[in-house]
Design a protein that fits this description.
The chain is α/β, with parallel strands linked by helices. It has twelve helices and 17 strands. The strands form five sheets. A seven-stranded mixed β-sheet has the order 2-10-9-8-7-3-6, sandwiched between helices. The chain has a four-stranded antiparallel β-sheet with strand order 13-14-17-16. Helix 3 runs parallel beside helix 9. The longest helix has 27 residues. It is globular. The structure holds pyridoxal-5'-phosphate. The site of pyridoxal-5'-phosphate has 14 residues, from helix 4.
Length: 410
């Protein structure tokens, strides 16, 4: 007889974006003429950069000839991309990395979800709240999160992020083993300062904790002085794994490519107290369960680092950040309390009149026909907040703000 992994049965039955899609479909069925504007799911809308398209075509042509055809790639990814990553994303920030520390992947979701494979189930968890749901759910799936009670997992220490603490939580009072941080943050669109990040690194070093640092939105940072990588902080290589994604940086949500940094000096402890390096364990895990990202995807990602690729990718990022500015200004002028949207493509607003996130969702859908994401879907502390994305078309974004302003009576 085969037994099920009962941890899966503890997960909430439906997924946030499935719930939203269901509610929007029901509304559209009842109101077929309503022009709904979707500012909910965090997917990009603008096409790939011309430099990326050119690289893709070229790589496909290489696959068509016997002499240049490629099969399985190297375990860590092709050296040309690892090199480009080190030279462009890290060296200019004073961070030196070995090629073996860079693991090319098919996007940050896989690795942020899978990284727990190399860490013991007895580890205690600390999550900022609200949070990208993959960190919580992937730990719940293997049993590390405990049980779900009143919307919170019993073995997770939640650190609330709200307007009062500027969306950077207080350090835990007790020792925790694994900490998930994501800055610039999804869903709140807020950032962490160097001093605040240093406090987390110092905490992790003092307590033997490991920080999972998700930097998927670092390319959106506009202001000087905000850290793009946790390794800008001294000592972070001894306590942090960092995840990067080309999804939002270069519109790769459908292409699929990203990378993870597992420093060679990063260690964790066995039950008998021995220190063990994590980089070889992650390498072993990837060699066993992952067969790499295609050569074609690698060449597409490499093109982002060429001078024209950099310029084109930047232009698209600025287009989205232009949307964010329009949204921030319109919402603020309409009297809403707005956060984020300065160094990240997400706007996080406080729901008016004490409405719950889902009440505001319903009202926004039935009133100005705008779809956003209820904050509570990202964790208990998201209640009373609402997320709008800046990844839409400019026209949609402007129309949405006009409707919203009119609806709010401003
Ligand atoms: N990390 C964060 C914080 C995200 O918001 C997302 C996607 O929305 C991801 C990781 C996953 O990105 P990818 O498309 O690279 O899997």
């Amino acid at each position: 007889m085969a037994f099920v992994n009962e941890n899966f049965l503890k997960l909430p039955v439906s997924y946030l974006f499935t719930d939203i899609a269901r509610k929007v479909a029901a509304f559209q069925k009842e109101n077929p003429t309503a022009q709904v504007i979707r500012l909910g799911i965090g997917d990009v809308t603008q096409p790939l950069a011309p430099a990326v398209i050119e690289a893709l075509h070229k790589a496909v042509d290489e696959m068509a000839k016997k002499e240049t055809f490629r099969g399985y790639g190297p375990e860590h990814g092709y050296a040309f991309l690892q090199q480009a990553i080190i030279e462009n994303d890290f060296l200019p920030r004073g961070i030196e990395l070995e090629m073996d520390e860079v693991f090319v992947n098919d996007g940050a979701k896989s690795d942020t979800g899978n990284i727990g494979d190399i860490l013991g189930l007895q580890n205690t968890l600390c999550m900022t709240d609200p949070i990208y749901p993959v960190y919580v759910d992937s730990n719940a799936m293997c049993g590390r999160a405990g049980d779900l009670r009143d919307g919170a997992w019993s073995r997770i220490l939640y650190r609330p992020c709200n307007a009062e603490n500027g969306f950077v939580p207080a350090l835990p009072e007790q020792a925790v083993d694994i900490i998930y941080l994501c800055y610039p943050n999804n869903p709140t669109g807020t950032v962490i300062t160097r001093e605040q990040l240093k406090a987390w690194v110092d905490y992790a070093l003092a307590n033997g904790s490991i920080i999972m640092y998700d930097a998927a939105y670092e390319a959106y940072i506009q202001e000087e002085g905000i850290p793009h990588s946790i390794y800008e902080i001294e000592g972070a290589k001894r306590c942090a794994i960092e995840f990067h994604s080309y999804s939002k940086t270069a519109g790769f949500t459908g292409v699929r490519c990203g990378y993870t940094i597992v420093p060679l000096e990063l260690e964790a402890t066995t039950a008998s107290g021995e220190r063990v390096a994590l980089n070889p364990l992650w390498n072993r895990r990837q060699c066993t369960k992952f067969n790499g990202t295609s050569y074609i995807q690698h060449r597409a990602a490499e093109a982002i680092y060429t001078p024209e690729g950099k310029r084109q990718v930047r232009e698209t990022i600025q287009y989205y950040m232009g949307n964010a500015k329009i949204m921030r200004e319109a919402l603020t002028a309409a009297g809403m309390r707005v956060f984020g949207g300065v160094n990240a493509p997400y706007i996080w607003l406080q729901t008016p009149d004490g409405l719950t996130s889902w009440q505001f969702f319903e009202q926004l859908l039935s009133g100005p026909h705008i779809v956003g994401t209820p904050g509570v879907g990202f964790g208990p502390s998201g209640e009373g907040y609402f997320r709008l994305t800046a990844f839409g078309d400019r026209g949609d974004c402007e129309r949405a703000m006009e409707r919203l302003t009119k609806w709010l009576g401003k």
